[in-house]
Amino acid sequence: MVKVVFIEHDGNSHEVNAYAGESLMEAAVSNNVPGIDADCGGNCACATCHVFINPEWISKVGERREMESSMLEFSENLKPTSRLACQIEVSEELDGLIVELPEAQY
Amino acid sequence: MKEKTDVEEKNVIPDPWSLPLETLDVSKAEIFQSNQHGEYFRRLRQESPVHFCQESQFGPFWSITKFNDIVAIDSDHKRFSSDTNIVIGDALPELVTPMFIAMDEPKHGVQRKTVQPAVAPTQLSELEVLIRQRVGYILDSLPVNEEFNWVELVSKEITTQMLATLFDIPFEDRHLLPYWSDVATTSETVGIEVDMNERQRVLEECLAYFSKLWHERAAEPRKFDFISLFAHGEETKNMINDPMEFLGNLILLIVGGNDTTRNSISAGVVELNRNPKEYDKLKSDPSLIPNMVSEIIRYQTPLGHMRRTALEDVEFKGHTIHKGDKVVMWYVSGNRDEEVIENPDAFIIDRNKARHHLSFGFGIHRCMGNRVGEMQLRILWEEILKRFDRIELTGEPERVLSNFVMGYSKVPVVVHKK
C-alpha cells in the first residue's frame, strides 16, 4: 500500500491507498477522487487527469515526457509542476505523495 | 408485387453482410443519412477492423473502426498528419482554406493556444448565467400543444446564440452563423454534390464580414472573443493578410460550434423518446444530467470521422499503411465497439464511465470546445426539466446527408408543460 493525498482546488483533501504498479490516475478514479475525469482511460490522449506535484516530490515522480507535454500545453492551468496522473506509476518510493488538482480539467 | 422504379432501386442501401468485404465502401453519405451505417461498421469491426477500400468516390482509403486503434492513430500525430485535409475527401487545391485543425505542429499549437482562452473553463463559468437566461427564454417562447421542428427552434437557436457570444458579433446578425456553417459543411469532400464555386462565393461573404470585425477588434484592447484573440495574438496578428487562412479558421470555429452541439441537442430528444425508461430515469433523478450529456455525445457521435494522412510507411495491426495513404478514423464506429463499451448499442443515461467516448477525438487535436458543448447540453436539460413534463417526438426524424456530420434536419415534437 502506498499513501497518496489528493488536494482539490477548494482545499478538500482525499487520502487514498494506492497500489504499486497502478497509475496515479487509476488510484484516484478507483477511490472516487472528484476532479479527475480521465476521459481517455489512461492513454495520455486527453489531458483530463491533470495534477500538480508537490515541489518536494518532483525529483521522485520524475519529469513529463514529450507526448504528455504536448497534451498539457493546451491547459489554461499549466504550471512547471503539472503532470498527467495517468503517466505516473505508483511505487513504494512515492509513499506519502501529495498532489493538487487544478480548478478544472480541460 | 409492385416493381421498384429506378430511383427507388438506386436509393436502396444494400445489406452490408451481402457485399464482398474487400469492396465494402463506408464513405457513401447515403448510408449515414438512412441511418444504416451501424451494420456496415459492425461488419468491419468483426471481420476487418483495419480495412482498405481500394475504390471509392474519394479514392482508396483505410478505415479504422475499433476504439483503441482509433486512440492509437489519433495520438500518433508525428506519423499521421492532419496537414491540409481532415475529412475523407481532399479539397481542390485552389479551394484549400488552411485552419489549425488541419495543420501539424508547431503551427497548429500556436494558433490553437491563441484562441483557446475564449472557451477555457474560467471563461465559461462567467458565461453560464447568460446562457441559462437565454435557454430559459428560448424554452419559454416555444409553441405549446402544437407540432414544431425542435432542430430549428431549439438546437440551432441555442448554439447560434452561444457562438454569437464567443465571436462577439451583434445579436441580430447571429443567424448568419448557422447559414455559413451549413454552407461550409455542404461539400463534395464529405460526399454531397454541390456547386463548389457558389459555396466559395458565400464563404467569401463570411470572410468579408469578419475582416471588417477583425480591423475593429485590432484597434480595441484585447478581449476574450475569438476574433479579438486572433487579432491580438503575437503569432496570429498578421493572419488577416492571408485571407484563405483567416477564412479557414473562421470555418473551423463556426462549424465546430454549430453542427456538433446542435446535433447533440437534437439527438437527446430523439433518444429519450426511443428509450422511455431512460426518460423516466432522468425525470426521477435530474442529477444524472451530466452523465447523460456524455452518453448523448457518445451515442450521437456528431462528427462521424476524422481523417489523417500517413507521413511514412507504418506497420499497423498486421497491415502496411503506406506513406501518403488516407487513414479514416471512424469515431461513429469506435463508439459502438463492444470490446471497450459494454452494451454499446444501448442508450443508457447512467452508464458507467460515460465520458470514455471518442466523439471529441484524442491527442493534440482533441476538440477545443468540448466544455462549451457539454455546458450547453447540461443547462438545456436542467431548464427543460423545470418546465416540461415531456418533449414528445411526434414523427420520424430526418437525418442529414453526410459521411462527416451525423445530424438531424428535422425532429418534429410537441412539448407538454408540467
Task: Provide structural commentary.
The complex is a heterodimer of chains A (106) and B (418). Chain A has 106 residues and is of the alpha+beta class. Chain A has one domain (7-100): Beta-grasp domain (Ubiquitin-like (UB roll), Roll). Chain A has three helices and five strands. Chain A has a five-stranded mixed beta sheet. In chain A, a hairpin with a 5-residue loop joins strand 1 (2-7) and strand 2. Chain A is globular and about 35 Å long. The model of chain A has no long low-confidence stretch (mean pLDDT 95). Chain B contains 15 helices and twelve strands. Residues 1-9 of chain B have low confidence and may be disordered. By secondary structure, chain B is α+β, with helices and mostly antiparallel strands. Chain B has helices at 6-11, 29-33, 37-47, 67-75, 107-115, 121-140, 150-167, 176-185, 196-219, 226-232, 243-274, 276-284, 289-300, 331-334, 370-387, and strands at 50-53, 61-64, 80-81, 148-149, 306-310, 314-316, 319-321, 326-329, 388-393, 398-399, 408-410, 412-417. In chain B, 46% of the residues lie in helices and 11% in strands. The radius of gyration of chain B is 21 Å and the shape is globular. Chain B has one domain: Cytochrome p450. Chain A binds chain B through residues 37-41, 43-48, 67, 70-71, 73-74, 76, 103-104, 106, and chain B through 71, 74-75, 77, 105, 109, 112-113, 116-117, 120-122, 353, 355-357, 360, 362-364, 366, 368, 371.
